[in-house]
């Protein structure tokens, strides 16, 4: 028999999201303890595809995010991203034989432990006030927790590997639930799927497509992202992390 929670999720796919406070003024990526990897991408300008991507973003996006990208622009950027391979950004695909989840016994168990403990790495390919082009590299089972992209459009291209994506959009008009320690807001499921390279580019928008999302790496994987405009707390684009809770009114 299905639990009340499972029934509620299957019928309504709605949850209350409670904000998690971020610390200080660090970027949303370093708050997740990602490590810099300056050597991950070399000679970006030597790739004609990456150069074309940069030029298209430079001529299209603004620091205010207005006007939002048109459907024609979105399609053009997605088409270009779909053509980019790991080699185009100076990378090679990681193998998936790290055996995570299958125990650590064996002749190479110490090296395996070291491999499993590797952090998510993050590299800026290019960043300005209008957009960021960056790459995330995930070890198996690593997680980027649930977070938002206020007023932003984000393009995500899985370069290699498999990544589980769970994403929400806010229910409008806003439905709030207050308690002694926090204010929660009702959200609905938008995406719950596995992306395995090669696959098409995913796009989220300010109010649709799963603007709040989290990632779990099922294998070693890498994701090429474009965020526009960039995070900017003074402009109201602060990254907030969330916990998700089932809506109790739907679980009765």
- What's the total helix number? 4
Overall 3D shape? globular
Secondary-structure-based class equals: alpha+beta
Largest sheet: 7 strands, antiparallel
**Mean pLDDT metric:** 76
The helix-strand sequence is: HEEHHHEEEEEEEEEEE
Strand and helix layout:
Elements: H1 4-12, E1 14-20, E2 35-36, H2 48-60, H3 71-82, H4 109-116, E3 121-127, E4 132-138, E5 143-147, E6 153-160, E7 162-170, E8 176-178, E9 183-196, E10 202-204, E11 212-217, E12 221-228, E13 241-246
Parallel strand pairs: 2-3
Antiparallel strand pairs: 1-9, 1-13, 3-4, 4-12, 5-11, 6-10, 6-12, 7-9, 7-11, 8-9
Helix pairs in contact: 2-3
Please provide a written account of the structure:
This protein has 252 residues and is an alpha+beta fold. It has four helices and 13 strands. It has helices at 4-12, 48-60, 71-82, 109-116; strands at 14-20, 35-36, 121-127, 132-138, 143-147, 153-160, 162-170, 176-178, 183-196, 202-204, 212-217, 221-228, 241-246. Strands 1, 5, 7, 8, 9, 11 and 13 form a seven-stranded antiparallel sheet that branches. It has a six-stranded mixed sheet with strand order 2-3-4-12-6-10, with helices on one face. A hairpin with a 4-residue loop joins strand 8 and strand 9 (183-196). Helix 2 packs antiparallel against helix 3. The longest helix has 13 residues, at 48-60. It is globular. It starts with a helix and ends in a 6-residue tail after the last strand. The model is unreliable at 1-13, 21-46 and 97-114 (pLDDT under 50).
């Amino acid at each position: 028999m299905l639990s009340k929670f499972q029934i509620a999720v299957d019928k309504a796919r709605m949850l209350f999201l409670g904000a998690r406070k971020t610390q200080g003024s660090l970027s949303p990526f370093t708050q997740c303890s990602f490590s810099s990897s300056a050597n991950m991408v070399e000679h970006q300008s030597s790739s004609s595809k990456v150069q074309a991507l940069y030029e298209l973003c430079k001529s299209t996006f603004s620091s205010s995010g207005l006007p939002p990208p048109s459907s024609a622009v979105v399609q053009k950027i997605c088409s270009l991203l779909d053509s980019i391979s790991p080699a185009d950004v100076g990378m090679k695909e990681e193998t998936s034989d790290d055996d995570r989840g299958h125990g650590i016994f064996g002749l190479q168990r110490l090296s395996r432990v070291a491999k499993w403990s590797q952090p998510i790495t993050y590299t800026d390919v290019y960043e300005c006030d209008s957009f960021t082009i960056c790459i995330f590299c995930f070890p198996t089972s690593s997680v980027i927790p649930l977070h938002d992209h206020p007023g932003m459009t984000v393009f995500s291209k899985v370069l290699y590997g498999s990544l589980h994506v769970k994403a929400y959009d806010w229910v409008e008009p806003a439905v709030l639930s207050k308690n002694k320690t926090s204010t929660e807001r009702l959200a609905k499921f938008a995406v719950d799927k596995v992306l395995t390279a090669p696959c098409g580019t995913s796009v989220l928008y300010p109010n649709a497509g799963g603007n709040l999302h989290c990632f779990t790496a099922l294998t070693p994987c890498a994701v090429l992202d474009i965020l526009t405009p960039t995070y900017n707390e003074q402009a109201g684009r602060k990254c907030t992390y969330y916990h998700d809770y089932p809506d109790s009114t739907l679980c009765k």
